[in-house]
Amino acid sequence: MGESSLPPPSATNYVFLVGHFAILILWGLSQYVYIPYPVHLLSLVTAILYVSCHQSLILAPHVHETLVKHAAAAAASTSSSPAVIEPRETLRKEDAYQFPIVGSFALFSLYLAFKYFDKDFVNMLIGLYFSVAGVIAMTITITPYMDSIIMAPNRNFGWMWTMPHNLPEWLAGPSPWDLSLELAFSHILSLFVALIIITLYFTSEKAWFLNNILAISFCLQGVRNFSVGSFQIAAILLIGLFFYDIFWVFGTEVMVKVATNLDGPIKILLPRESIEKDPETGKLNLSLLGLGDIVIPGFFLALMLRFDLHQYLSLTTKRQEEQQSSSSKPQQEQPPLYDIMHVEHAAFPKPYFHSSLVGYVIGLGTTLLVMFRFKAAQPALLYLVPACLGSSFACAVVRGEVKSLLEYTEEVPVDEEEEEKVEGDDDKKKND
């Protein structure tokens, strides 16, 4: 899988493009036309997962390494600062074990806050956090659309600035602080649009359709930028949250109380029966799905898609090497297997992703069916975790690739992390 001077194959993932349009159309149409709640939820969440998982292909080890090399080569040829390629954020096994415990602590803390403090005051504090996080998430989400709209050269603005400090590293991080900033014109326009949306969100009493813009942005950026590391780590995380969800929903009132009292974009809100307000209460009857029920399984689905890419690259490269070794003709240079700058459009078999996505849809559909049947809140992960893990593992059994699935990892070795940190510190010293 070395470098090649031949042009990469051109491909367009039309389903990926349709996913973008589906999110926009469902969001806009649902404000004027009632879409049956199960259809609305299943189609919207499926589109979100398909788009975000394909965007996460940049986290695949081979893709990320190639992007770093391309950025360094481009900087060397133009004598400019290299493009910033963020290091891969990968969950470790220790973190996966602790996640349900940390989540339980945070959930119960919110429950106590709502129980002993004024609800509006708690929501105001949480709103301040989400206003900042929401603007960042929306800006990153909107920028690609702005890039495709803006026809003029996308000029960059910013500054280079570092600030030394004498504080302990465990408290304030390594010295100096890197306060450099570089924004393209499209970033500035996207930031402006995000500020308008967040302002409308708070001045319109947090309308459900504006809530969904923030919630969808959080989902897209969360799945796109985070890796659960391996199938084994993902299984530990999902199984732990499986019992976490069952306990806090069925065993206590905590989950339901927090979900209904927390007035923030941590859930997808959709009209349940009509887009008209209830004449008695003056409010719209809404149903919700927590972002954790999208993002957490989304991490796993994205991992399965990157495993599909890994299998395709490994098998295709092996096949090419075998053909060249058995041929008496001079070896010819092979073109890249995909366009590194548009890896989300790469054409390759996706059996694990598709089976996991189908499993997710079946699991979420089962959740809705049981919820409507018993007219009670359901822990979605109770149905989603077995569906996602079971469908992907069954796919591996059928294909005879169980060993490959269990051995696949995206974890960054500790020595590699330390090396990246040292290189980053050296770069900062050179800039100083």
> How many strands in all?
8
Our count of helices gives 15
Shape field: globular
Give, in order, the helices and strands.
Answer: HHHEHHEEHEEHHEHHEEHHHHH
Mean pLDDT: 84
Beta-strand content: 5-15%
Low-confidence stretches: 1-7, 417-432
Find the structural class using helix and strand composition. mainly alpha
Oligomerization: single chain
Strand order of the largest sheet: 1-6
* Proportion of helical residues: 55-70%
Could you give the distance between the termini? 37 Å
**Largest sheet report:** 2 strands, parallel
Explain what this protein looks like in three dimensions.
With 432 residues, the protein is mostly helical. The protein has 15 helices and eight strands. It has helices spanning 14-29, 37-55, 61-78, 93-116, 119-149, 169-172, 185-203, 208-225, 231-251, 254-261, 292-326, 351-374, 381-399, 402-407, 414-431; strands at 89-90, 156-159, 162-163, 177-178, 181-184, 226-227, 267-271, 286-290. The chain has a two-stranded parallel ribbon with strand order 1-6. The protein has a two-stranded antiparallel ribbon with strand order 2-5. The longest helix is centred in the C-terminal third of the chain and has 35 residues, at 292-326. The two termini are 37 Å apart. The model is unreliable at 1-7 and 417-432 (pLDDT under 50).
Write a brief caption for the model.
With 432 residues, this protein is mainly alpha-helical. The chain is built from 15 helices and eight strands.
What is the topology?
Layout lengths: L13 H16 L7 H19 L5 H18 L10 E2 L2 H24 L2 H31 L6 E4 L2 E2 L5 H4 L4 E2 L2 E4 H19 L4 H18 E2 L3 H21 L2 H8 L5 E5 L14 E5 L1 H35 L24 H24 L6 H19 L2 H6 L6 H18 L1
Parallel strand pairs: 1-6
Antiparallel strand pairs: 2-5, 3-4, 7-8
